[in-house]
Structures are given as C-alpha cells and as structure tokens.
Amino acid sequence: MAKNEDFSEEMDRREYRRKRRVRNQMISYIVLAVVLIGVAVGSVIGVQKILKMLSDKKQAEELQKQLQELSENEEEPAVIEAPDEQTGPVAETDYLEEIVNSTIAEMPLEDKVAGLFFITPEALTDTDVVVRAGDTTKEKLRECAVGGLIYFSQNIKDSAQLSEMLQNTLTWSKYPIFLAVDEEGGSVSRVAEAGLADNVGPMSEIGASGDAAVAREAGTKIGTYLSGYGFNLDFAPVADVITDGNTVIGDRSFGTDVNLVSPMVAAMVEGLQDNGVSACLKHFPGLGDTTEDTHEGLAASEKTLDEFTAQDFPVYQAGIGAGVKFIMVSHLSAPNVVGDNTPASLSSMMINDILRGQLGYQGVVITDAMNMTAITDYYTSEQAAVMALQAGADMILMPEDFKAAYQGVLDAVNNGTLTEERIDESLRRIYRIKKYEEYISIVGE
User: Fold this and answer.
1) CB 310, CB 267: distance < 8 Å
2) Within the chain, which residue ranges are assigned CATH 3.20.20.300?
3) pLDDT at 379 over 70
C-alpha cells in the first residue's frame, strides 16, 4: 500500500484537473488502476493485497461514494487511494484548499513575496506610460511575479487596445494575476471616462433613489463591461458613510444614512461579482467624517470604536454578508481606537482585531495606495510594506518605490522579522480567489 500512496502523491498535482467519468465505469477504472500500479512496482503481492481490499464490499462501496462526491464526469481516471478510517465525502472547501496549497508549495520565496504586491504597469516595466503589453511586459512578468496590476486613464485608449493589453498580460503572467481598475461610477470611472462604456453615474444619485436594485443594476453593468475587456477586480464600491458637507468622498458615497448605504453596497457587490469581477469595499474603517485627504497628508478621525461600530461597520458587515472578496484599508488615523496616530493600514488592531476579529472578515485585505503622503511623509517604502504585512494586510497597493518595498519584505523574511508562514497565510487568501474558477471547472457550481 505504501507504493500505492507514493504513486498517488506523484499524481496529486494533476488530480484536480481530471473529471470523473460516468458511474458505471468507476469499478473498471479502479481495477485498471490496480493493475497499472501492480505492473509499475512489479509487486504481485501488493496487487493481491489491493484486490483483496477491493473485494471487501463495504470498502468498495465507500470508495465508489468517495469518487462520486469529489466531482462528476472526469476526462481521465484518477489514481485511487484506499479509504482510511475517516472515509466520507470530500468537502468543497477542502478541495479548493488542496489546489491552493499545491500551487503555493511550488513557488520560490521571491515569487511568494512578489505575489503580495499590486502595482501599476509603469512600475513593473520602468516606463513612463504603458498602453500595450509587449515583450518588456512579458519579460518583467517572468522576472517579477507581482500579484496584481492596476490601470488608470492613461493606460486606456480604445477597446481593441485595452482588450489586447489585458489579454497579453494575463497570458504572460507566471501565475494567475489580478487586473484591476477604479470603476466606481460617476467621477471615478477610468473605462467609462475613456468613452468605452456608459457611465452609471455617481453613487450619490443611486443612493438617492432609495432602491438597492438600482445599485445592483449598476454593479451588473460595470461588471459586465469590465469582464468583457479582461478586468477581474474593481476597486469599488465606496463603503464610506459620509457626514453632511463632506467633500473628501463627496458624491462617491451612497449617502449619509448607514441604513441606506449598507444594502446599496451589498447589492453593488453582488452585481459586480455575479458578472466575474471581484469587488473591493473601501475605505475601512471609514473616511466619511474626515476633512483631510490621505493623498495629501495625515487624515484623522476622533471617533471611538463604539461610534465606528454604529456608524460605519454595518456597511462592511453587509458587504461581507454579500461575499465581498476584497476590503481596502485606508491610511486613516483613529487615535481613540488604536491609541496613537498609526494609520489603519499599518495597525494590527484595525486589521486583525477589528476587521478580522470583530467583523469576521476572512477575505483579502489590501492597503490603500502606499504612495500617498499619509504614508510617505512618515515611513519608507520598505518600512510601510513590512508594517502592513505585520499588521495583517495581504496585499500592498502601489508602494512609492516598489523595488525597495519588495526587497524590504524579502529581507524581512530572510532575517526573521516576517516568517514565510505569514507570507503563505496571505497567499492562501489570495489564491482562493485566483484559483476559484479552476476549482469550479472541476467540481461544477
């Protein structure tokens, strides 16, 4: 049996790509697998033991059930392992976890670290403006396997150009890659602003309708045209509940009433994600009462944890309930919550204790852009990247100096400041999203 297990381990990486054949062929494949194993190892005794095991009716029935539960209609027969004492259906989440873990296990540390960064195509290629993905993009993606690329108006010229650029990038990436854009509707709509789609309008107008179905329709429209061009992530919707007169977020928010904003945000998440585009709530814990812009300096809120819990967090809970895959943590300082002016994006209390602990969020946490002065005025690129990961963030968005930030994280792992297990923890969350479509193609909806 040890040799049978060895053979199964060798085939494990391929196992998930196979589909189960119809039920009446299962036993014949089992017998074939047994014969092949026997031939490969040249052990008549081993074959006899396996055949004896399969002759046990109860075990054979359990084995057949195990095959059926994994997935239907596989193109090739899988290597069969004898059921152990805990024989039973294989949970879907466990099977996805197996796919994710096998992917991460093959990655060198350099690729693991690169996979935590989300940068612009210009930062990847060291060029001024990128409007196509050519040989330079291909070469750089092989050298540095970043986890995601974010595109802005300067990268978008026309439909054919955009589609080709994204498709080439996807094809040439060493691993699955996130291709993202800020497409909120209204004034922040990179694709619509380029004339490549109809603008759904500002979220304040949708919020004024009082109808969450309108928000879902907006998410559906945006998700449909983004996925059509090749994007798989939208940094939207804005989940901030603004106070009257707020100009930092303004009409990007659905409104001032948490009970209105919550269902709107959840509905837009569903509209986006039902059309193949992951949504990202922003800007946790909430920028709705700030008068400063983190792009231009330190922004702070005097709210207490109880006030955030009552006035802001219900929106995030609604989005989490809708299955949102990303949450962006802002650089807001909340001294009455964390005890000092540490930005939320670098705060373990905000990310681990509150977002993951209190709100129960288990998806990907990404920082807001790390080239904002709320970060760059106080931290180097490498300091900010390491601190964000220590605080519980999974992905670092747009560090001021990507190369320095990448090397800083790599050095931190090599000197023990960060562990490789901590890196793997974030990669597992990331790859549960990246590998989900592959998983669905195997087991079905």
Assistant:
1) no
2) 102-443
3) yes
Q: How far apart are CA 327 and CA 235, in angstroms?
A: 9
Cβ–Cβ under 8 Å, residues 348 and 392: yes
Q: Is 295 a catalytic residue?
A: yes
pLDDT, one tens digit per residue, over 189-205 is: 999 999 999 999 999 99
pTM: 0.79
C-alpha radius of gyration, the chain, whole number: 25
Which fold, 102-443? TIM Barrel (3.20.20)
What's the full length of the chain, in residues? 445
Q: Which of 182, 211, 274, 295 is catalytic?
A: 295
Q: Which two tokens stand for residue 5?
A: 């297990």
Looking at the DSSP assignment, which residues form a beta bridge with residue 103? Answer: none
Of 240, 251, 312, 368, which one is the catalytic site residue? Answer: 368
Distances (CA, A) of 143 to 110, 124, 137, 176, 177: 10, 10, 10, 15, 14
Distance between CA atoms of residues 443 and 19, nearest Å: 8
368 included as an active-site residue: yes
Q: What angle do CA 140, 233, 348 make, to 5 degrees?
A: 90
